[in-house]
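=== RUN LOG ===
request id: a7f3
mode: sequence -> structure
chains: 1
length: 65
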Amino acid sequence: MTKATFNYTNDKFISFEIKGHANYAEYGSDIVCSGITTATFTTIGLLKKLLNKSDYLYLEKDALI
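=== RESULT ===
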């Protein structure tokens, strides 16, 4: 199961984490996981355009935002 966690401090959004596998199909062939990945990377791209580089942490190697 894929799980998304959104973290807030004092009603201010600070981070999100998406983990797991959708189990729709085998790893590497799962269209649900592909959709989640696409939505996540689209969100990251938009945040990078909207925020100053000093306002966010993004570590692609560790899949940490």
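=== NOTES ===
The mean pLDDT is 85.
The radius of gyration is 13 Å.
=== END ===
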